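Fold these two proteins, one after the other.
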Amino acid sequence: MYATHSHGRRRERGVHAHGGVARKRASLSPLQVLCCSIGAIVLIANARRALSPKESYLGSFWSTTTSKPRGVKYELHTLPVEAKAVADGDTITVYVDMANPHGSGNVPREVQEAAAERIKARTTKNYQKADALQKIIVDAGYRQVPNLSGEQVLAKKYRIRLRGIDAPENSMSYGKEAKEELVKLVQGRTLKISVYDTDRYGRLVGDIECNGVFVQEHMLKKGLTWHYTAYDRRPELAKWESQARASGLGLWALPNPEKPWEWRKEKPMRKW
């Protein structure tokens, strides 16, 4: 009996002992709970970072940035671009629907009235009046063009200078190829333009995205433009130019390609 009673007492002490441990584990201090929670969050964040794919520059710049890049004054979203709107490898003329937040409210009253009257004239097939009204609209820097739905909308014309690159002029070696490549990239597509500045010729200077492609990156990697270091020091542009140079692509196939800014110095009478 003694052995049985002793065994029972030991079991009881064991239960109390285990119960005491359980009570001790349950009574963590608030500081300990906080430390454990922080540690778990850090572990989860590190695991997600390790599993997520690395983003390219293009993806991180255009897709994941919720705020506008530093220096951007505003964004323009264009109507589809025509082939004839491409002047050369670094300049495009675009039209922006005046419903765009940047343009709405800035249209002169006489232009608004001419646009409304022109729609009525076209509806009644009074094309002579419609043409006269179109001249008023065009002379003011606007145009009525079809949007993606085919409806006539009032749009404003902007000349865009691609920021950070300088393409050969049309009469230079690879000037024609640069223009053709830009036409092939943007024709019939809408563009997103991040506007940084206005140059001395009244052109808006900006970065352009076309169908998910950063246009300056595309042109540099094709070897059809120079990195315009006099006005832009972004290292990624220098890297893309260097890659094309190393591969001998485009104008870098020439033994000594002429710099367009030096070529223009010899022809100062023309506005570039």
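Now the second one:
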Amino acid sequence: MGMGNETYSLSNSIIFLIIFLTFVSSTNGGDIVVYWGQNEKEGSLTETCNTGLYEIVNIAFLSTFGDGRKPQLNLAGHCDPTSNNGCKILSIDIKNCQKKGIKVLLSIGGGVEGYTLSSNEDARNVGDYIWNNFLGGKSFSRPLGDVVLDGVDFDIEVGGGEEFYGELARRISQHKGTKKVFLTAAPQCPFPDQQLKGALSTGLFDFVWVQFYNNDPCLFDSNNPGKFQKSWIKWISTIKVSKIYVGVPASPEASTAESGFVATRVFINKVLPFVKRSSKYGGVMLWDRFADKQNGYGRNIKAFV
């Protein structure tokens, strides 16, 4: 009888394990991505990475470039890129993040005028500048010091020249270094995004975090979840990319995000179960670190992402 009970117990354990593994494989776990750099009150990059909340951090922004402009970082009050040492001190923070396995990307563009691309040649020149100054190339004027970033995020919202961003993506991809360069993008949720459709059509991008905010036709609404769901399905079924992320404001007061905040309980119970059904689900993008620090959004959703 003892052997029979042990066999029965072992069989039950195996069945439970199979059910558990089936459940785990049916839901896709994801990462949290955050934008850092637009509010000095958000704390340092080292502090941001030490929270353990984020797998990818986008340094925002390289906000001036193209059409003859001298490329320029804008990191709010964190550092002055025009001073002698500029923002090179951030190389220590970036290396700290990378040692923890966190990818640190340069986000180009943003929501303020000051950048554009005027031609394919212009796009190639900007691509060479980004490679030589932030990635695996060489330059005497590297704004963030000798650290090599993990990739480039295209947050193209204004400026024109949208037909040339595909060439920019191609140029960056043509450069080969000692480590992979990730290309990511942050399109607005109405499909297709007018500024980024050309770039995304290249098939060169690894991750896309769709901004499901500031655009009423595709925001999540508990009373009408269909409009968000329809938009999400369109994105995951159309764009050739490894992973797609849900982008949301981390607080109702998040700067530049005037609408689209979803309360954490609703996000966990209504949004995540739907998007995690897709094998293309990558996780959640939060705008931005300051809002998340104030509101604790990432901390509250982390276990469910």
